[in-house]
């Protein structure tokens, strides 16, 4: 178990822990259609979240708000043009709750029906 999520699950009452790492393209450049579609989604996520992720980091690095905005806009252009041809990693960790000492799935009672999960 290499990842923190997997280590956290080992302290819980779960069995059959699985940990998977997926390579996610940062733009729709792969030739594989499924990978290209996932890359398009990832590109959109990076485009939409770039300002929020980078503002505090760049502000602490000494850049003015105007410089940050200029940098963010230039980075967005590079993202849209597909110059970024790399991968990021997506981790999925899950386990199975044992049935023995725990309740099986059941219908929720009325007080649980109004809860938002």
Q: How are the secondary structure elements laid out?
A:
Elements: H1 4-10, E1 15-25, H2 33-60, H3 65-81, E2 87-96, H4 110-113
Antiparallel strand pairs: 1-2
Helix fraction, binned, reads 40-55%
Total count of helical runs of at least 4 residues? 4
Taking the alpha carbons of the first and last residues, their distance comes to: 29 Å
Query: How many whole angstroms does the radius of gyration measure?
Result: 21 Å
Estimated structural class: alpha+beta
Percent of residues in β-strands: 15-25%
According to DSSP, the number of beta strands is: 2
Count of discrete structural domains:
1
Main sheet makeup: 2 strands, antiparallel
Please state the average pLDDT score: 80
- Uncertain segments of ≥5 residues (pLDDT<50)? 112-117
Trace the largest sheet across and list its strands.
1-2
Oligomer: single chain
Helix-strand sequence = HEHHEH
The 3D shape can be described as flat
Would you mind describing this structure in some detail?
The chain has one domain. A two-stranded antiparallel ribbon has the order 1-2. The longest helix is centred in the middle third of the chain and has 28 residues. It is built from 4 helices and 2 strands, in the order H-E-H-H-E-H. With 117 residues, it is an alpha+beta fold. Helices cover 48% and strands 18% of the residues. The C terminus is likely disordered.
